[in-house]
Fold:
Amino acid sequence: MRRVTQEPERALPEDLTSAITRAGYYPALVCDVVESALAGDEVVSHLVHQETTFDHETVRRHVTVLVVTSRRLVIAHADDHAEPGAQATATATTETVPLDAVRGVMVTHVVTEPEGFVQNSPSRDITLTLGWGAVSRLDLLPAQCGDPDCTADHGFEGTVSADDISLRISAAADGEAAVERALSFARHLSRSIGGAVRA
Structure:
């Protein structure tokens, strides 16, 4: 009987481990699920984004880890998942997407006082949106015609957009370094899929 030898798991790089630890949301759990999802692949680029939301009287924490390897995009989410008064519970989910399945990398820049904007200024907010076709959103509106007195039913018109994940990074809230890290990750992922970042 032929014996199958398993390659040893590769440990997370120190800078990724440090970024997960800095995010402060159950770092041992997050490191464990990311390492498991990587399955020994070497990390080429990564982005860690921590977010806190308020739901009525409950504070919910959330961390997203994006990792690019030579072949795949690995996405990990970890969330609080407990009702008030219940025992603390977290859920951690990973998804692995082949790089050739990533359809788009979109970066939206929000700049206040654009008339005074200086090129390469770090003072901005960005929204990083990645799409690979797992989730599509359909926005429908009643179709209109050019006649303001027309009362006919023209059906609907709309747009289909794929935004499987969307992260907002703010220089004011997260720091200028966080914005630069997100832009650097977006540039790297965009090059990896052979496209250009759409601004």
